[in-house]
Amino acid sequence: MDSIVIRGGNRLSGTLKISGAKNAVLTLMPCALLTDEILTLENLPRLADVDGFMHLLNQHGASTMLKGARNGGFGRAMTIKAKDIASTVAPYDFVRKMRASILVLGPLVARAGEATVSMPGGCAIGNRPIDLHLKALEALGAEIELAAGYVKASAPDGGLRGGTISFPVVSVGATENAVMAAVLAKGETVIENAAREPEIVDLCNCLVAMGAEIEGIGTDRLVIHGKDRLHGATYSVMPDRIEAGSYACAAAITGGELMLSGARGADMPSIIAGLRDVGLAVEELDDGVKVTANGRLDPATISTAPFPGFPTDMQAQFMAMLTLANGTSMLTETIFENRYMHVPELARMGADIEVRGRTAVVKGVDELVGANVMATDLRASMSLVLAGLAAKGETKVLRVYHLDRGYERLEEKLSGVGADIERVSEG
Ligand code: UD1
To answer: Is 277 left (phi over 0), alpha (psi -120 to 50) or beta?
Structure first.
């Protein structure tokens, strides 16, 4: 199993290329199941979850092909052709490793009339239910059965039909499944209280490129006019706003200056507001976002919320950064009940953090010290890398496979801007 070893203290500076977004590509890939023609996704990030999803699509009968990289090795493309759906079952082994597998549910039932997907169950960042995904499909006429750890959704004989879906809470995943099912349902579907994350905009834009008709893109009310069929398309995955935000925190925590090439400021308003709050200069440019640290960081009070609020996917990285702020910060996690697994690990590096219910009180300290640390999810692991970049001495982050799920060539990107970081294999 690989680890990342960081010798902290280097100030980062230079240009770092932002990859295609993990949270977008994992909802764009299942769109290929909605057509028998080819969907080509460009600006594809090279991530373990992308490979995992590719294998899932293969076992549903889709053929996939990876095309060579441009951009100095970044930005590959993938073609996906689901001429026929060979299997409508998403087995436990896939879903267990990758929660995003649940996103084949909507497309499969819309295209093939049925889908059987293993229930994802709880996971490291809390009990993540899928009831809203299922209610959305029921609103489109699907029948749902739960048995032996699997959810089976079947469309009535004539297929799914449009309906009104009104979400009681904002759910990114349930909105994605609902949109992908509705584009092939008969008639009109209205989705109320839809998630408005930029990745959902990316999903809708891709579906429109495939012939779908969607009104209200980017708002919390989507109106979808179902089509009999969709066609192929070529679509470029949006830049990863969470990766960009994570590297902005790397600049902040090392007192550095980074040009995040390709990042889109418009996708990250609350991240940029948070960075400015802690004292960073942030410039939104045509070709990226530039962040510059100016001395010691200020503390901040931040609460996670659905877009355009502050993303839960940035909470851990901001916490790492704020461990070195000049004062006390308050971070409140409102999306997931158990997303503080990085706290004890950061504490082992010298951070002063107390969790009170859903709020973490972070008292800034003068320095962090390197340690062997391990996290149990992707963003928590990134927070440990950030802490390691600033810590005195050597930090070893174990279980790198979490990072490989969501950060393309992390050590290469960071060493390119001055970090002393390497991947080591241990038998
Ligand atoms: C969530 C985040 C997303 C992030 C991803 C991975 C939000 C709104 N969503 O997306 O930004 O990229 O985690 O970290 O910030 N819920 C239900 N029933 C359901 C589905 C969800 O009760 O069927 C609840 C969840 O428990 C949670 C909230 O709704 O409290 C939002 O969850 P949801 O957006 O669906 O989670 P993800 O799609 O995983």
So the answer is: alpha
Tens of pLDDT, residue by residue over 52-81, are 999 999 999 999 999 876 555 666 899 999
Fold of 22-227: UDP-n-acetylglucosamine1-carboxyvinyl-transferase; Chain (3.65.10)
Write out residues with Cβ below 6 Å of ligand 1. 23, 128-133, 169-174, 195, 197, 306, 311-313, 335
CA of 402 to the centre of ligand 1 (A): 19
Summarised one tens digit per residue, pLDDT across range 214-255 is 999 999 999 999 999 999 999 999 999 999 999 999 999 999
- Compute the 3-state secondary structure of the chain and give helix, strand, coil in percent, each to the nearest 5: 35, 30, 35
Distance CA 196, CA 199 (A): 8
Instruction: Ligand 1 pocket test: pick from 105, 172, 313, 334 the residue with the most ligand atoms within 8 Å of its Cβ.
Output: 172
Residue 35 alpha carbon to ligand 1 centre in Å: 27
Assigned CATH topology for domain 2-18+240-425: UDP-n-acetylglucosamine1-carboxyvinyl-transferase; Chain (3.65.10)
Let me know if 31 is a catalytic residue. Answer: no
Residue ID of nearest Cα to ligand 1 atom 15: 306
Position 123 confidence tier, pLDDT thresholds 50, 70, 90 = low
The answer to whether 90 and 64 have CB atoms below 8 angstroms apart is no
Q: Could you state, in order of their start, the residue ranges of all structural domains in the chain?
A: 2-18+240-425, 22-227
Label residue 257 by pLDDT band (50, 70, 90).
very high
